[in-house]
C-alpha cells in the first residue's frame, strides 16, 4: 500500500463530518500537490511525498501518545478517532502548493559541476503556519475549538509567537500539546533528510 493509499484509507475510515469528502477530493485533484509535496526544504521529509509521509507519522505518534493511561486517566485526554485523525493528518495543510523545485550548481561525486534540483518556498498565501492550516481547513469543514487550537499551535514553542500566548494555548487545549509532541517525535525521530 502506498502512503497515498494509506492516508486515504485512514481519512475515509475516520473523518466523516460534512465537507470531508470535498476536502479529500481537493487533496487528490490537480489543484493540490499534497501527495507529492515535500514536508520541508532541507529538514524532515525534504523529498517528494514527504508531506503525506509526515502526516501519517504524526497520526501514528499521536495515536500512540493518546493511548497512554496517564493521558486518559490523569490528563483527561479523550478525543474521538475523527478528531485525532483530522488534526494529525491535516495539521500541515498549509504546505500544499507551498514548495517549488529550483536548480543550483553543485559538484557531483567526480568533482564536476552540475545542476541539481532543490526545494524552495513559493508562498502565495503568507498567512503564517498553523493559522494558515486552520484557515484552509475551515473552507471545507467545521473544526471544534480544540481542533483549531491544536492545529494552530502544533509547532509549540518553536514558532515565532509570544511564548506566554503559546503556553496558555497548550495549557487550555491539551490536544495542542499532544499534537506538538507527536509532530516533534515524527520530525526528529522518524524522518530525516535524503542524506540521513
What does this structure look like?
With 196 residues, this protein is mostly helical. It is globular, with a radius of gyration of 17 Å. The chain is 49% helix and 9% strand. Strand 1 and strand 2 form a beta hairpin. The chain is built from nine helices and two strands, in the order αααααββαααα.
Layout of strands and helices, then pairs:
Elements (H helix, E strand, L loop, with lengths): L2 H12 L5 H9 L21 H17 L2 H5 L7 H10 L8 E9 L5 E9 L8 H9 L6 H8 L10 H10 L1 H17 L6
Antiparallel strand pairs: 1-2
Helix pairs in contact: 1-3, 1-5, 3-5, 3-9, 5-7, 6-7, 7-9, 8-9
Strand percentage: 5-15%
Strand order of the largest sheet: 1-2
Helix content: 40-55%
> How far apart, in Å, are the first and last alpha carbons?
24 Å
What's the number of extended β-strand segments?
Answer: 2
Tell me the Rg in angstroms: 17 Å
Q: Could you say which structural class the secondary elements and strand pairing correspond to?
A: mainly alpha
Low-confidence stretches: none
Largest sheet report: 2 strands, antiparallel
If helices are DSSP runs of H or I spanning 4 or more residues, what is the number of helices?
9
Average pLDDT for all residues: 93
Instruction: Assign an overall shape.
Output: globular
Amino acid at each position: 500500500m502506498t502512503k497515498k493509499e494509506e492516508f486515504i484509507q485512514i481519512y475515509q475510515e475516520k473523518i466523516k463530518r460534512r465537507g470531508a469528502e470535498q476536502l479529500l477530493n481537493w487533496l487528490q485533484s490537480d489543484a493540490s500537490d499534497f501527495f507529492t509535496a515535500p514536508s520541508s526544504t532541507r529538514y524532515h521529509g525534504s523529498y517528494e511525498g514527504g508531506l503525506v509521509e509526515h502526516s501519517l507519522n504524526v497520526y501514528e505518534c499521536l495515536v500512540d501518545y493518546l493511548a497512554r493511561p496517564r493521558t486518559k486517566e490523569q490528563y483527561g485526554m479523550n478525543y474521538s478517532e475523527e478528531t485525532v485523525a483530522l488534526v494529525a493528518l491535516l495539521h500541515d495543510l498549509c504546505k500544499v502548493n507551498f514548495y517549488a523545485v529550483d536548480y543550483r550548481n553543485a559538484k557531483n561525486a567526480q568533482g564536476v559541476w552540475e545542476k541539481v534540483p532543490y526545494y524552495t518556498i513559493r508562498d502565495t498565501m503568507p498567512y503564517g503556519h498553523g493559522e494558515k492550516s486552520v484557515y484552509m481547513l475551515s473552507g471545507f469543514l467545521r473544526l471544534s475549538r480544540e481542533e483549531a487550537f491544536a492545529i494552530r499551535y502544533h509547532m509549540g514553542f518553536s514558532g515565532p509567537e509570544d511564548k506566554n500566548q503559546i503556553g496558555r494555548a497548550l495549557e487550555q487545549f491539551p490536544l495542542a500539546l499532544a499534537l506538538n509532541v507527536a509532530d516533534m517525535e515524527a520530525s526528529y525521530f522518524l524522518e530525516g533528510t535524503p542524506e540521513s
